[in-house]
Specification:
The chain is mostly helical and 122 residues long. Helices cover 77% and strands 0% of the residues. It contains four helices and no strands. It starts with a helix and ends in a 10-residue tail after the last helix. Belongs to the ATPase g subunit family.
C-alpha cells in the first residue's frame, strides 16, 4: 500500500510539472480555437445571463422531450400488440442491444473506479 502511495505521489509530481510547463500554451490555444463561442465582454453578468438562458431553454425543451417519450412508448406498445409477427432476427437484435448496454454500464463502472475490479487487491 505504501509503494502504491509513493507511485501515486511521483505521478502527481510529474503531472504537475507537465501542467506548469505546458498548461498556459494549451489554455491559450484552446481559447483561440473556440473564440467564436466566447461572449464579449466575458463578465460575471454575461455568465449569469447565459446560465439563465440555458436553464430556461432546457425547461422549454421539456414538452418536446415528453412528446418524444410518448411516441417511443407507443412504438413499444405497437411491437407488443404485434408480437406474433416478431421474428427471431428482431429478438437477436434486441438481445445484442441489451448486451451492449450492459457492457457499456459495466465498462463505465470499471473505468470510474480507475480500471480496478472490486474485491481484487493487487
Amino acid at each position: 500500500m505504501a509503494s502504491k502511495l509513493h507511485q501515486f505521489g511521483s505521478k502527481a509530481v510529474q503531472v504537475s510539472e507537465f501542467i506548469s510547463k505546458h498548461g498556459k500554451a494549451y489554455y491559450e490555444e484552446l481559447l483561440e480555437k473556440n473564440k467564436q463561442h466566447i461572449v464579449q465582454p466575458p463578465t460575471i453578468e454575461a455568465c449569469q445571463d447565459l446560465s439563465k438562458k440555458l436553464f430556461y431553454t432546457r425547461l422549454a425543451s421539456i414538452p418536446g422531450r415528453f412528446e418524444s417519450f410518448w411516441k417511443e412508448l407507443d412504438g413499444v406498445k405497437h411491437i407488443w400488440r404485434n408480437r406474433k409477427e416478431f421474428k427471431v432476427e428482431d429478438a437477436g437484435i434486441a438481445a445484442l442491444f441489451g448486451l451492449e448496454l450492459y457492457v457499456w454500464f459495466c465498462g463505465g463502472e470499471i473505468a470510474g473506479r480507475g480500471f480496478t475490479f472490486t474485491g481484487y487487491y493487487v
